[in-house]
Amino acid sequence: LLIALATLVPNAVVKAFTPINLSVCTKKSLAFPVNSKKSCIYPTKLRMSDDFQQETPGQTKERIQTLVDNHPVLLFMKGSRIFPQCGFSNTATQILESFKIDFHTVDVLADENIRQGVKEFSQWPTIPQLYVAGEFIGGSDIMIEMYQNGELAEMIEKAKADMV
């Protein structure tokens, strides 16, 4: 059946749905042809594959915690480091780039679970969000203030030392 499906239906659809009950027909229909005798098999019930199951809030929180633990300087932002998708994310990346350090970014626009989950994780309602050495720092407004008074530079220096 999957061979017949694969020739007629894109791979993503074949992988996404697993037939539970199959019915066999002997007349022309919109079902999937099986042989040249005009017989066909078509699924009567479909179920989603495990590949498309929704991530639980607990799993999202674990994934965020792993990111925070594994990256000394981590920025959750809209867009990418190279192509920020909002002015606040752009400001945050420019501040971090000024320290000439390696930092990791996560594009929250690419993952709705992360986008909502990180707000709950930090208990901070806006993005971008900066973490340094596992500690939540804040958004771009806090970053600007800390950059101007030198506090962020001290934190980044400590994180640099931890990277080595």
How would you explain this protein's 3D organization?
The protein starts with a helix and ends with a helix. The radius of gyration is 24 Å and the shape is globular. It has 164 residues and is of the alpha+beta class. Helix content is 45%, strand content 23%. The strands form two sheets. The protein has a four-stranded mixed sheet with strand order 5-4-6-7, sandwiched between helices. A three-stranded antiparallel sheet has the order 1-3-2. The chain is built from seven helices and seven strands. The protein has helices at residues 2-8, 11-16, 57-70, 87-98, 112-122, 140-149, 151-163, and strands at 17-25, 32-33, 40-48, 73-77, 104-107, 129-132, 135-138. Strand 2 and strand 3 form a beta hairpin. The relative contact order is 0.12. Helix 3 (57-70) crosses helix 5 and helix 4 runs parallel beside helix 6.
Main beta-sheet strand count, sense and barrel state: 4 strands, mixed
Distance between the termini: 55 Å
Structural class: alpha+beta
Q: Tell me, briefly, the overall form.
A: globular
At a glance:
The protein has 164 residues and is of the alpha+beta class. The protein has 7 helices and 7 strands.
Secondary structure: elements and pairs:
Layout: H1 2-8, H2 11-16, E1 17-25, E2 32-33, E3 40-48, H3 57-70, E4 73-77, H4 87-98, E5 104-107, H5 112-122, E6 129-132, E7 135-138, H6 140-149, H7 151-163
Parallel strand pairs: 4-5
Antiparallel strand pairs: 1-3, 2-3, 4-6, 6-7
